[in-house]
Amino acid sequence: MVADSARIPLWPLPLLLTLLFLVAAHAAYLLSIQGGHVPACIPYVDGCVSISRAARHGWGNHLFQLLVLPCAVLHALVWWLARHWLRGGRVMLALGVLSAIALAVYATFLGTEGEAYRFLRRYGVVVYFGFGYLAQLALMRRASLTEALAAGVIAAMSWISIAMLGLGVANVVAGLVVDDPSAKDRWENVFEWWLGLLMVSWYAVLALGWRRQSVGIRLQAD
Known about the structure:
Elements: E1 4-9, H1 12-34, H2 51-54, H3 58-86, H4 90-109, H5 115-146, H6 151-177, H7 181-212, E2 216-221
Antiparallel strand pairs: 1-2
């Protein structure tokens, strides 16, 4: 017999994911500046440092790992819940979970040395952004077909996705047309910071959509 039943809203989870990542990246950068490991600038404009370099040293590295590893767990949980919410989407779930695993690998090996570690960091970033982006597209498509999210929420997600695609194309073009290695690094750093911001902002919009639709999970106790 069911003695108690409670419905827990899901929107705080993607919002917490967003906040954890933003705090991790920016707080780690501030700690690295304080420790003298990196120069101070506005990375979204000046591109003086990448996210990886900003979180690679000292206390900044420890804080980044402390916050991003739980963020990766939340990332996987959000995609698992999204599949149940949409009543399908195995490919979407697989892409989302692989993206979460790549984020955990990237955070774990950030700050380590050696060719194998550099390989894991580099491809951790590529898989996180690439598979995460594809999972987001899959969710938008399924949510649009099933009308699981409001049209305005889908539109906001779509604009973010278009902006991320535009950044990716611009990064490739910059790599081809910019000859100066230092200028090329600065552009890549700028693109990386904006891409990270847009990626996690998408989850904030998902949180808004889930809140508006009162998406939740019901827990029952016997």
